[in-house]
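Support request, please re-run this one:
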Amino acid sequence: MNQAIRSSWLVAVALFALVFGSITYIQFFAADDLKNNDLNSRGLIEQFCSDRGAILVGGQPIAESVPSPDKCKFQRVYHQSELYAGLTGFFSRAYGQYGIEKAENAQLTGETADAFYDKVLSLLSGAQPKGRSVELTIDPAIQQMAYNMIPDGQRGSIVVMNPKTGAIIAMVSKPSYDTNVLAGHDATSVAKNYNRLLGIDGIDMFGSSAYTKLYSPGSVFKLVDTAAALASGKYNKDSVLANPQELSFPGTDATLPNYVNGGCGAKTQAGFSFVLEQSCNTPFAEIALDLGQDAITEQARKFGFNDDSLYFPDKVTASKFPGSKGQLGTAELARSAVGQQDVQATPLEIAMMTAAIANGGAQMKPNLVKSIRTPDLKPVEEFTPEVLRQSTTPEIAHQITDWMTNVVDKGIAHAATVPGVEVAGKTGTAEGIPGVVNNNAWFTGFAPAQDPQVVVSIVMSNVDIATGAQLTSPNASKLIEAVLNK
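Re-run finished. Output below.
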């Protein structure tokens, strides 16, 4: 009799251990794989109907879950949705998650390992489990100011960041859209809205164009050439550069003209400061031909080009040098050196490159998340600045800074001046296809030049020269001044 009881007890213990072990495995080890399985729609439905944490800017929610009268207990709502669409992204039952909604999904649902205890306490107390809040680094006033600077109907992006920490102060793009129309519970209506937005040229529903879209960088890429030249040891601050009005190339009819809208024609030979001030093409093309493609590619890499592994926390599209081709011909390398040909960059990459120069050559990892907070808004994780790479030496960064201040003080970026503040900057014009597409107009810069607090990078797509000049440098001046006066 005792043996039968003992055997039954052992079987019961074994079964209990098996059940407990299975639950533990599913809850802690297999949970992510099961939830992310394409065949598991229940996990997505559960998340879609849950009380997700808020996305905060300046302490206020720009995305939050509110009670819903239908089968789903909660509805995701976006505030100032067009202003923040490129950052928050959206959460749709049919089309998935994008932006911060995707990148910080585990925090917003409260499903990280360290949030498990909070979730258990909520269940035991009978409270509705709620995800954590994600607070962004964005300054709401600067974000709104930058957004208003891009005219409706104009394609463009603006990035404002702190070069010493990598924190994103503002990031905007137009055209934008209302994320609420994709987060509804009416599947027919959501599908109609999704297809309508897909048909609107220029709208990027899957992240801000500031970090997903590639543009020809034009003359802002000359900062890469300058750093490569100084790093090579073949050039220094006293170097005299040939400045012909046109370059021709052996074996081809292709030519590269100098920039015609500045003062390049005044000198056939000039120093670095002058050719940057006036954004002359031919000296930088000759530098690239002298150093070779590998040297320019390596310096571009040190600034972040060709990096396909960057998240901030959403995935950043890799900027490209030399582009789609491998080994370039002479004419192709010359055009690439002035940011044309197949060279492409995101506005975020140009801001990161500029920030590295501002920060003495150290490129900080860009970051959009300031902190993670519990449902009652207690901070559980704070943003910590992180050095991403060393892009140049401090000496090279400081020399380029001096030349960039002359671009604003005496050169073609004079409209970026701020009273009482030394601004370092560089303009760029990437030529489009005559009669088909206009130019990409750029400004990138930072201030104060000797103690940088803010980087501003602006691109306006498909604009003529006059419109591009009006929408870039003057707006950069206003944004720099606004940040410094905070």
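The chain has a mean pLDDT of 90. The CA atoms of residues 426 and 444 lie 5 Å apart.
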